[in-house]
Amino acid sequence: MDSARQHVKHCARKIESKEEELHKIKGRINTHDTELESRESEFDAIQLSSEDRSEELKGKNAQLKSAQLSIGECEKELKAMKELKNPIQKSIVECSEELHSKEKNLILGRKYLRECCDNIESKKVQLDSIQLTVYDYRYAYRRGCCQHKLGITKYPQTFLSG
Q1: Is residue 90 within 8 Å of 104, Cβ to Cβ?
Q2: pTM for the whole structure
Q3: In angstroms, how far is CA 126 from the centroid of its own chain?
């Protein structure tokens, strides 16, 4: 019975550990989301900046070459940012899948813990029943021994049905 309690405590510690891991994963997902939003804002700002520059440069033929170089640099930055965005999105998907897996494990752990508790309760009820039966047999045996010493050979019906 002590090993069952220890097992239940061990399962509870595992569940707590999994919940802590789950909380950490959620924190990392939130961090990645924030970083992704920040990068997307930068991307939008650069894109707007690029469009504004392009409008200004239409009327200025003399500055056309420098503006084209600037746009080329902006496009390189955008491309670099897009390349950074894809691994972050993949990481978020992986974290989400890991989180889902941990949630399933947590649910299974809780179910197993409930089953352990139910099993312990069932064993306790069985033990109580066995103890009551033992007390009944002891009483019947003692009563039978006492009646035998007194010369009483007929036993009450309640002990025979026992």
Answers
A1: no
A2: 0.34
A3: 34
Paired tokens of 66: 């420098």
Handedness of CA 52, 54, 55, 60 (dihedral sign): positive
- Convert the pLDDT of each residue in 6-38 to its tens digit: 988 888 899 899 899 989 989 888 998 899 899
Looking at this protein, which amino acid is placed at residue 130?
A: I
Give CA–CA dist 54/52, Å, rounded.
5
Amino acid present at 23: H
Domain ranges in the chain are: 2-118
- Residue 109 CB partners (closer than 8 Å, separation 6+): 11, 14, 15, 18
Q: How far apart are CA 108 and CA 115, in angstroms?
A: 10
